[in-house]
Automatic annotation (TrEMBL), chains A, B:
Enzyme class at the top of the EC tree: oxidoreductase
Transmembrane regions listed in the UniProt entry: none
Entry protein name: Aspartate-semialdehyde dehydrogenase
Pfam families with a match to the protein in the record: Semialdhyde_dh, Semialdhyde_dhC
Organism: Gloeothece citriformis (strain PCC 7424)
Gene: asd
Origin superkingdom: Bacteria
Family note: Belongs to the aspartate-semialdehyde dehydrogenase family.
Active site per database record: 130 (acyl-thioester intermediate), 243 (proton acceptor)
GO molecular function per UniProt: aspartate-semialdehyde dehydrogenase activity; NAD binding; NADP binding; protein dimerization activity
Alphabetic keyword roster: Amino-acid biosynthesis, Diaminopimelate biosynthesis, Lysine biosynthesis, Methionine biosynthesis, NADP, Oxidoreductase, Threonine biosynthesis
Biological-process GO terms, alphabetical: 'de novo' L-methionine biosynthetic process; diaminopimelate biosynthetic process; isoleucine biosynthetic process; lysine biosynthetic process via diaminopimelate; threonine biosynthetic process
């Protein structure tokens, strides 16, 4: 029987945090004790785990004593602030923020793609960006058979990507518009209900936003292929939960559609959804609450003899965040990768 | 002073029909008489033109006597059913349906792109598909300077593309979801509110839907370039009006971003909308009710040295349909292309 471990969730009250609590239960993660941590603002709230009410505690220097695994989902600055404390306490941090993802000392892991990278950890393992995970799940199985040379992606990202409050804001905006009132925007920069806009993360000098650069750089790191050429357009759409992506792939030689379908039908964590008669393909409402990434519209690229087009939908909070983090935890347990030499602290100066 | 002509709108009560009526007024189209035509179901309704109430008439064999210009927007089967009658009556039909677009005898015209094609008409001129018009407006000015070799596009298409009833359905669905009820779908195949799905037009043997093939084939015809390679992914999104498109362009040689912006800044019917500080780019709510196609996020393609990425939003009913049709009418007047030899009837057998 698997040894039970002590787990802490940092950022327990957020959209990903509550999903982590739910998934730890449903996946029967071997937990001795679960500690729910958050900022002082959320401390004192009660959340339910396995039918028991747990009180959210404010994170302090002492919070991580005796903890084996920390699932962190409270934003980059919180992760940076507590990483050293967590590692010093002998715990491993699986970090859902972008703080350490591109740090060469930190493995960036999707268990279906690069599980062996986890063994290199020095106390921190990064969970990739949601759109990157979802894309990797559909693209890597093909990339293994024939390397992807070039990838062009356009995303359709739900409000959940901006957190629980953004999801609530979109509903409030929708109700205002239905009532012939002018919607207001506080969490997101512009009204999202019945509207959409390019992803509002910071732009680099070439005009690409951070979200797009995550898809470029994180995919290269996860695939272990610095040569794959990627360009992305990230867009927020008025969907509550689950992201969609239109992906164009270019290979060095033709890749048959039938072979691609067969490969994706057998890929772990991927479900091919295609019903041409009903014109039924992956939709966010069907991907919501699902572990699998739904892939469909697998077809020859009409503009290139060595190209394929794909369409996918995946639950951004599930496989795009919480599920992947827990799968990393399961991998650490399975490969006996918890409790590394505690004195090798990662550089948190990134 | 321009001669005033007799105009009929076939399909006057639809989303495009009502926009045609409004635009004929606002653009001071030189009208002697305006006749509003529709099916028997809509006959008897009243619509306002220039402050006067006009009664919608049921279309009959006699409807087009004395008419100079018919703006048709009642669907492909209605256009096919009445085309010969219209041409025989000596009128020119500007058809918004897809019925005649790929007919070699029928010019397919975007006045900013291929105005001279209109002179070849034999009684019918086709108005292109909305997503095709919007894309052409942004791409053709660049294509003129350096030919586009390959184009990959992903669309974000509003409910208006499926008509006024679809727009209403999305609102009803949204209200149901906000009330924690299950939404129903009657006009569109699946719920669109807080959801999205690949365009539901019929699929060909390669898995491309009609909407996607329109973007491929119509663009080639309008640009007069059968060699441009195009692949498209068309998606319906829960936006009420105005379509968006993420466009990836590949040229034979590098195309500088600064030059592209300068060209698009001077392109007729195009407005460059880019504010990097505010992360403000084209959005459907800003494109709604605008004549111009809003273009932004003009940037170097990170995956190809000869590539550019673009983002656009355009009013699907305005420039994507009604405005373009009226501009064709204006072109016909200006170039004296109404009343061609009446006996040359077009083949309507396509």
């Amino acid at each position: 029987m698997t040894k039970e471990i002590n787990v802490a969730i940092l950022g327990a009250t957020g959209a990903v945090g509550t999903e982590l609590i739910d998934l730890l239960d449903r996946r029967n993660f071997p937990i001795a004790n679960l500690k729910l941590l958050a900022s002082g603002r959320s401390a004192g709230k009660s959340l339910t785990f396995k039918g028991e009410s747990l009180t959210v505690e404010e994170v302090t220097q002492e919070s991580f004593q005796g903890i084996d695994l920390v699932l962190a989902s409270a934003g980059g600055s919180t992760s940076k602030a507590w990483a050293q404390t967590i590692v010093d306490a002998g715990a491993v941090m699986v970090d859902n923020s972008s703080a350490f993802r591109m740090n060469p000392q930190v493995p960036l892991v999707v268990p279906e793609i690069n599980p062996t990278a986890a063994s290199q950890h020095q106390g921190i393992i990064a969970n990739p960006n949601c759109t990157t995970i979802l894309m990797g799940m559909a693209v890597y199985p093909l990339h293994q058979i024939q390397p992807v040379k070039r990838l062009v992606v356009a995303t359709y990202q739900s409000a959940s990507g901006a957190g629980a409050r953004a999801m609530e804001e979109v509903k409030i905006q929708a109700q205002a518009i239905l009532n012939d009132q002018t919607p207001t925007a506080e969490i997101l920069p512009y009204p999202l209900a019945f509207n959409l806009f390019p992803h509002n993360s910071a732009l680099n000098e070439l005009g690409y936003c951070e979200e797009e650069m995550k898809m470029v750089n994180e995919t290269r790191k996860i695939f272990g292929d610095p040569n794959i050429r990627i360009s992305a357009t990230c867009v927020r759409v008025p969907v509550l939960r689950a992201h969609s992506e239109a992906i164009n792939l270019e290979f060095d030689a033709p890749f048959s559609v039938d072979q691609a379908k067969a490969i994706l039908n057998n890929a772990p964590g991927v479900k091919v959804v295609e019903d041409w008669q009903r014109n039924y393909f992956p939709m966010p409402i069907d991907a919501t609450g699902q572990d699998d990434v739904l892939v469909g519209r697998i077809r020859q690229d009409l503009s290139h003899p060595c190209g394929l087009e794909l369409w996918l939908c995946g639950d951004q909070i599930r496989k795009g965040a919480a599920l992947n983090a827990i799968q990393i935890g399961e991998l650490l347990l399975q490969e006996n990768l918890l409790h590394p030499s505690k004195t090798v602290a990662v550089s948190v100066g990134q």
